[in-house]
Amino acid sequence: MSAAKNKRIVPATRTDGIKYAIRDILTIANEAKAAGKEMLYLNIGDPNIFGFAPPRHILDDTYQAMLQNRLGYSDSDGIEEAVAAVRRSAQRKGISGIQHTYITSGCSEAIDLGLSALVNPGENVLTPTPGYPLYTAILSKLDAENRPYYLDEANGWTPDIEDIKSKIDEKTRALVLINPNNPTGSLYPKESLQAVVDLAIEHNFVIFSDEIYDKLIFDGKEHISTAALSSEAPVITFNGLSKSYVVPGFRIGWGVVSGPAEMLEDYCEAIRKMERARLSANHPQQYAIKGALEGDQSNLHELIETLQRRRDITIDGLNAIDGISCVKPEGAFYAFPRVDVQVPDDQLVTEIIRETGVVIVPGSGFGQRPGTRHFRVVFLPPDDVLARAFDLIATIVKKYR
What we know:
Blueprint: H1 2-6, H2 21-24, H3 26-34, E1 40-41, H4 56-67, H5 80-92, E2 98-105, H6 106-116, E3 124-129, H7 134-141, E4 145-152, E5 158-159, H8 161-167, E6 172-178, H9 190-203, E7 206-210, E8 235-240, E9 252-258, H10 261-277, H11 288-294, H12 298-319, E10 324-325, E11 334-335, E12 338-339, H13 345-356, E13 358-359, E14 361-362, E15 375-378, H14 383-399
Parallel strand pairs: 1-13, 3-4, 3-6, 6-7, 7-8
Antiparallel strand pairs: 2-9, 4-5, 8-9, 10-12, 11-15, 14-15
Helix pairs in contact: 3-13, 4-11, 5-11, 6-7, 12-14, 13-14
């Protein structure tokens, strides 16, 4: 009896491949903080902790919903006005053939439901490298194969179409696009998106188009929604309020399934089954969606202006360091500099955190081509914090040059 009481509980093997470097790195950061270091956090893409605030009207919409006791469960798809607003937003982006729209607890849940309703153990999904680690974590949970394809750093971190072609087989169920990309900030051109759309039609796989940063675009450039390029390709377009409307804690996101109706009928019903099983997304926060998407957008102009300035400080500061080169981000609030040093990037990042207090994330946490070394920085912090951080990073990189 005592032996049984002391026996370890063995976790599921599906958790072995789950890593999340963005938060895992905080263990080292907390050690540095405990040792008395002044900490400069450039690791988490949370605009609120750096002084950014959401538009007041979407807070008022949520507050009024709470006062009106809209605190029970909502429909599993989402409240009617939110679903309709999301569909109209997608149509304004040029998306047609919409078969299903569903509101979720953050964009992350929309992605999880979409993958879980599609992929069986042993099947594969093509994910970008570098890319956001959520996708690999979900695929690990599903006992499915994550099959990474490379983004081409020499070509502005756009998808390497030839590499994608070489990795498609009969077990490929989906391909993930993150546009603008996290962690590189790259904005994909129409030609790259069209090439992926053509492959999806040819090989009968679903495109997961993660467009959560689609409104945070710099230099007057335009974001193109993947699904707008063809009504024949099966696409789920993911978005949410977290980044552009500065409410990540609301946990409100959505998925828009588009493409041929007959082709997607069974898949959409599978997603609905999973929606019903988890009941609903956060209810009162859904009342912020219509006002966010269709109300005053002045917050976006101010947000983009600030982020573009901080992007420029970041690029100038990083490229001034001997041994670092960085492709200029065109969207989101991340940069993914390359480091020419002869130590692993996780070792370099650990030393930077411990010696300087600057918290960044190693490139290996997002994936990268073998033999290259990178790290991700978030340029949400104030101008002076960014400038100090890059000066401190330079002192460590210099040691290895």
